[in-house]
Amino acid sequence: MSTPTSMAPAYSAAEAGNPTEVARRLASRGVVLEPDEVTLLIELLGRPPGWAEAVLFGILWSEHCSYKSTRHLLQRLPTRAPHVLLGPGEDAGVVALPAPCEDLALVLAHESHNHPSQLLPIEGAATGVGGIVRDVGCMGAEVVGVLDALRFGHPVEGGAPVRDIVRGVVRGIADYGNALGVPNLGGDVYFDRQFDANCLVNVMSVGLVPRDGILRSRVPAGDGPWVFVLVGKPTDESGFGGAAFASGELGESDRRGAVQIPDPFLKRVLHVANGEMFRRLRERGLEAGFKDLGAGGVACATSELAAAGERGAEIELDRLHRVPKDLPAEVLLCAETQERYCWVLPESFAVEACDIYNRLYALGDVFPGAAARIIGRATDERRYRVQWQGEPIVDCPVEAITAGRRVHRASRRRPPPAPLGPVAETPDLHGSLLALLRGVGSCSREYLFRHYDSEVQGRTWLRPGEADATVIRAHPDRPLGVAFAVGGNPHWCGGDPELGARHAVAEAARNVACVGARPWALTDCLNFGHPEEPTVMGDLAATLEGLAVAAEALGGLASRGHPLPFVSGNVSLYNQTGSRAVPASPIVLCAGVVADLTTVVAQSVRRAGDFIVLVGEPRDQLTGSAFAREILRRHAGSPPGLDLAREAALQELAVAAAEGCWVVAAHDVSDGGLAVTLAEMVMACPAESALGVEVDLGVLETESALALFSERPAIVFEVPPERAPIFFQNARERSLLAWPLGAVTARPLVRLMLPDGEAVSWSVEELRAAAASPLKALWNEEGA
């Protein structure tokens, strides 16, 4: 299918004397090696690299694959706790679940697909979902949900291109997840001009696996012999260079070929076939390794499987099933064709495994050329060798690929902004709340997430929009549930990366606690600009410090004395155009465990006469608030302060209140402050319920604007009168401030009594109309 490829060097040792010129010449042919990597590669190989080797190392030494600038910094994150079974280093993290599901484990993975989604929104977002689903499936798990955290430009100020990206990304996520039959369990979305040229599409996937059936991404121990089996679509040129594409700035050249092509229908068949593989392996007690093919294609998957198992590999490219097209060997080796997996299996089982895919599930009938093929074997010698048409095209130490490149970049932290000072304006409170709800920052997200199927599989207990976290049932016959929530305010993280990162962890964990779940484990994606810029690396280091400090303070509800562990994650760099990088954007997923699903707490008010109680920090700052940015049109300043000891106590109270049935609704105070929180609690009620709230702001002993729009951490609870004594007692025991603000009423109004004796009110109907309008207008180009 192609002309033979020799080991003729990509450049000579003499030419490497001018590494900058070699790097420039390689870049003109699509191979990205930094000048010092040109010489390092000769040192590692003991000779100049062949062309296929230059391509391979250019891809696998990219930031996207190697984490060469960040791996040493990531060690700051806490990753261990008694319930962690597998932490970072595998395709996904795995944590144990408590009784009565101690025979199950929870699998979590987190990835970014930012550049592809900016370039081709539908395909980029869809393949992001496809990749993260494979990561979870490769641990032997059933995939039970996906989430997404999205950062877009401003749909009005950024114009039609931004709106096209928003709609395309949501369509890509929906089309893939819905066709695959995996529920979308929520996430979050922010809009800001700083993302006009670089959207962020972070995707997460969750799964459940028998605790004794967890697979590893490595060649197993033992004599084997072990063989590599490639499964899925025929290899083509799609996605070739995708990892290098994601490790550079988006430019003017057409890189659409680096974006992969999704096929959720083939993936669905592969999921079922993989399930049959899991069953047979477990029944027979066979060891195996399993890994998805993403960045770097066959080369990355097989070399990482070998290196993780302290083995080598011999790959025969002629054995790959591929499209009927003349493709160079380096493309076959490194293309990122979607919907592919790589097994490491005992040679005695490999033929049967191929038969499962090729005959029992007839992959070739689902997609022309799809198949399962043996493509090589593991070796005791720790070298990575590839042959093509009888000729060697790669021969190197396997560790040179997976661990051969580390870079320490210059780093400079910038001083955080000052907090927002006193505000002299006397705003129109009625108009201010409606203006916030009519803006894309605080409006309802329902029009977006209604594109997704959140109930397929029948596990979903609380859907997106019904509570601060979504909740699924872990097992159909057991009461245990698992909750998921996302945190990461780009305005706060961009202003003060360390404090903003603390808030990201705290918010994700607080949202999980609001439904009554104990924060159990974290994943993260770190989205930043060029690593060559010292301020970007300074922001990254500050962010990691903030994430770590918060995680170390908030793990007590899962395992007292231990941190809340990060078990999986991703780093996405080069989210920058010219001199303008995206703001520091850590996005954190928190998974929590609900002991009894019948006690979960939603956010909608439930019963007239119940008390409305605010617990948390005083309402004494507008710094960092949406009100300051969007209503006052001022620089919002630093994020509000965060006392992690009080935050831990607040989350402990929320979980105790849910487990003890002391509260019937809970909603955290975040974007838009108390005003938006109360509005969302009444808007979440069924239309026929005709409930509202009446609140006296005077008890907060502060100005009305501060009381309504401060975003200092807090939770609003609905407390039945008969449970109020025990609730307030538990708040006092934890040294938490608790303000009885008012009550739920039988009138569909939000009515506020102001400190001066005046009242202001909104009908639930006008609140709903305001909150629903922005995204509906965006999708339908109303008023564009």
From TrEMBL:
Subcellular location: Cytoplasm
Gene Ontology annotations for the cellular component aspect, listed alphabetically: cytoplasm
Residues the entry annotates as binding Mg(2+) 2: D135, D292
Chief localization: cytoplasm
Pathways per UniProt: Purine metabolism; IMP biosynthesis via de novo pathway; 5-amino-1-(5-phospho-D-ribosyl)imidazole from N(2)-formyl-N(1)-(5-phospho-D-ribosyl)glycinamide: step 1/2
Amino acids binding Mg(2+) 1: E111, N570
Gene Ontology molecular function terms on file: ATP binding; magnesium ion binding; phosphoribosylformylglycinamidine synthase activity
Catalytic activity of the protein: N(2)-formyl-N(1)-(5-phospho-beta-D-ribosyl)glycinamide + L-glutamine + ATP + H2O = 2-formamido-N(1)-(5-O-phospho-beta-D-ribosyl)acetamidine + L-glutamate + ADP + phosphate + H(+)
The keyword Chloroplast is assigned to this record: no
Pfam family, one: AIRS_C
Residues that bind substrate: S112, H113, N114, H115, R134, Q260, S572
CDD domains: PurL_repeat1, PurL_repeat2
Chain residues that bind ATP: Y67, D524, G569
Keyword Chloroplast included in the entry's annotation: no
Domain PurM-like C-terminal: 229-388, 607-752
EC code(s) of this entry: 6.3.5.3
Gene Ontology terms: biological process: 'de novo' IMP biosynthetic process
Keywords: ATP-binding, Cytoplasm, Ligase, Magnesium, Metal-binding, Nucleotide-binding, Purine biosynthesis
Phosphoribosylformylglycinamidine synthase linker domain ranges (all copies): 28-68
Domain PurM-like N-terminal: 89-209, 468-578
Subunit structure: Monomer. Part of the FGAM synthase complex composed of 1 PurL, 1 PurQ and 2 PurS subunits.
PANTHER family membership: PHOSPHORIBOSYLFORMYLGLYCINAMIDINE SYNTHASE SUBUNIT PURL (PTHR43555)
Function as written in the Swiss-Prot or TrEMBL entry: Part of the phosphoribosylformylglycinamidine synthase complex involved in the purines biosynthetic pathway. Catalyzes the ATP-dependent conversion of formylglycinamide ribonucleotide (FGAR) and glutamine to yield formylglycinamidine ribonucleotide (FGAM) and glutamate. The FGAM synthase complex is composed of three subunits. PurQ produces an ammonia molecule by converting glutamine to glutamate. PurL transfers the ammonia molecule to FGAR to form FGAM in an ATP-dependent manner.
NCBIfam families: FGAM_synth_II
Similarity-based family: Belongs to the FGAMS family.
Stated name of the protein: Phosphoribosylformylglycinamidine synthase subunit PurL
Organism: Eiseniibacteriota bacterium
